Amino acid sequence: MFRINFITFFLLFFTLFLNLNARDKNTIHQLEYKDQWGNVVQITGQTKWIIYIKDMESQKKVRNYLENQKEPQKFLDEHQIVIIANIYKMPTLIKKYIAIPRMQKYSYKLLLVNEDNPEKDFPFEQGKITVIKLNNLIVEEFKIIEDIYKFSF
User: In the sheet that 111-113 helps form, which strands lie side by side, from edge to edge?
Assistant: First the structure.
């Protein structure tokens, strides 16, 4: 009887441990980013969607989509969407003198990843857009899409 209770206890503890560990892996960890103007922006529990872009092709797709919205930032705010752009591998001079000044002309915020290996939290495929659905900072699902026009927020 003691042996059965011990095994049951061990299995319950192990299951609980795996469940907590899995939940931690599905939580967004980096909550602060700088936008293209240098302002610190936090991802909060109110954020419902993250659009993650890493290359020029995916950036152009998202930019065209947002430019077709009447008020891009208002659209993002109403749908509780943040856009995270990975500019880590961009050469420093191009980033500083060309890319960021160009991004500052956008009428919406881009949160910038300026560190190595953000893929821990954000899966990515070349030329595609990663869309992550959140519920109180916990990832409910993610999709890697080619056509943002076919996606519904």
Answer: 40-42, 32-35, 111-113, 81-86, 49-53, 129-135, 138-145
Q: Is 124 helix (H, G, I), strand (E, B) or coil?
A: coil
Q: What is the DSSP letter of 96?
A: I
Q: How far apart are CA 120 and CA 152, in angstroms?
A: 25
Alpha carbons 118 and 111: distance in angstroms, whole number: 13
DSSP lists the bridge partners of residue 135 as: 138
The CATH superfamily of 29-150 is Glutaredoxin (3.40.30.10)
Q: pLDDT tens, 93-138?
A: 999 999 999 999 999 999 999 876 555 568 889 999 999 999 999 9
Q: Tell me the C-alpha distance between 18 and 12, whole Å.
A: 10
Give strand pairing partners of 82. 50
Report phi then psi at 140, rounded to 5. Answer: -90, -40
Return d(Cα 9, Cα 89) in angstroms, integer. Answer: 49
131, containing H or E segment: strand 129-135
